[in-house]
Amino acid sequence: MTRRPAPVIISCGEPAGIGPEIAVRAWEALKSDVNMVWMGDTRHLPAGSVFQTITDLAEASDVVQNALPVLHHPFASAITPGIPDPRNAKGVIDVIAACVGLVQTGQACALCTAPIHKKALMDGAGFAHPGHTEYLSDLGGGGRAIMMLASEQLRVVPTTIHIALEDVPHALTPDLLRETIEITARALHDQFGIAKPRLAVAGLNPHAGEGGAMGRQELEWIADLIDQMGGEGHDLRGPLPADTMFHAAARAGYDAAIAMYHDQALIPIKTLDFDRGVNVTLGLPFVRTSPDHGTAFDIAGKGLANPSSMIEALKLAAKMARAG
What is the pLDDT of residues 267-306, one digit of tens each? Predict the structure, then answer.
């Protein structure tokens, strides 16, 4: 039998959410195409799941076409779908750390994380990080990590993320925008295999400020920064009016868009491809993808969860690992 590349490892995430069931359904869809391993407590997989426990990731390639390979990590308790148990919080955190270790040592080629529930982790284990990405960044050695939302139709990176709109103009600085552009361009080259990444940079204000009539950040520093970075070898265009840069003809002209704030980035991609968008963390020393949704406690265990985003996250993780 031809041995496949090292597997993508899936961290179980919050076991009372939809993570376990979408992992199984993603394996059913991709078992002939993507080598993968799920790490978590086997008790948390849906009843009737076809899985096989392994002790070494090298075994996955011989198992994956017939059963979901599982690295069993015992948790404190079984689950009730839709109701997080604080006793399991430490297990969720430990699995993430163990998965990162397996990627860093080359036993896995990439990490695909199922959704976590930050409050459950805080309540049950005193989780001190603002979110999943920050924890992964710390495990990877620190440094700024940024969020990309990716689909077949669009890749977009918000420069500022989870802050109030009124705070965006103050948080948005030349250094922050420069770093966002640099991290994005480097990741597109190193992890997506794009030799000369083309980036479109949105303006902050309506109509990119319209010559100062609707805001002056574009005139005062954004355009100058883009010009300066273009002179350093980056292929940039902008600042562009955000309302005209996401239609099909415009998207054909760039490999990723840099947005200035959360909704400017997420509205277009969720409109274009709501079910199949993938959250990619750029700036880490390893590949990490995740489905672009949460734990969905309201439908957990009911067989209603859509696995499309998990499927796309696994496919993209494997593709990025090959490109790197």
Answer: 999 999 988 999 999 999 999 999 999 999 999 999 999 9
- 8-145+284-323: CATH topology is Isopropylmalate Dehydrogenase (3.40.718)
162 is in an annotated binding site: yes
Please tell me the least confidently modeled range out of 143-152, 226-235, 251-260: 143-152
Can you identify the CATH homologous superfamily of domain 153-271? Isopropylmalate Dehydrogenase (3.40.718.10)
With left for phi above 0 and alpha for psi between -120 and 50, is residue 143 left, alpha or beta?
left
> Would the annotation count 262 as a binding residue?
yes
Annotated ligand binding at 279? The verdict is: yes
Cβ neighbours of residue 255 closer than 8 Å, sequence gap 6 or more: 155, 188, 192, 194, 197, 198, 199
Ligand-binding annotation for 234, yes or no, is no
Q: Binding residue per annotation — 251?
A: no
pLDDT digits (tens, 9 = 90+) for 58-67: 999 999 999 9
User: Is 293 labelled as part of a ligand binding site?
Assistant: no
Cα-Cα end-to-end distance for the chain: 25
